[in-house]
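2.7 Reproducibility. Because tokenized structures are sensitive to small changes in the input, we list the exact sequence used for BAG domain-containing protein, including any N-terminal residues retained from the expression construct. No trimming or masking was applied before prediction.
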Amino acid sequence: MKSPSTNVISISIHFVSEEKRPAAALKIQSCFWGFLVRKSMKKIVEIKKEVDEVEQQISRRETVDLIRTNAKEQLRVNEILMALLFWLDSVRGVDSGVRECWKKVIRKAIALQENVDAIVAGDQAAIVVDGVGSNGQILVGDDSVNSSSGTSETFVGDGD
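Resulting structure tokens (single pass, no recycling of outputs):
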């Protein structure tokens, strides 16, 4: 039986001096870190757009009426919001700024879920119709805009 022929390939190895190694590793690490931050923020922005679309749908009178009268529509909206929350849960919080954006979008989605529940319960104080609540403010999310004056107010969370 013939033995397989073997080819010997010589590979030259060059050692990097000790003082250059940390700078190169730091550069690679910072590039990778930036990549992870950009990737996470891209996902969060996509999810925020979806949450904003659901918010716009909920702010219309015809959608509010449909949610009140049709259990399937309520379930559909809640399932969309839950799917978005699950998608948000898959995003890695690699940076404190990313985590803050992540938390704001989560709070907004949960507030929308509570708003849908309030619509079904008939709670007039919490219902947003045409984007404005009964007290003249947009109620959903961290930022509230007073529709009568056009001023913006920021609500401070509980430190989550």
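Strands lie at 143-145, 152-154.
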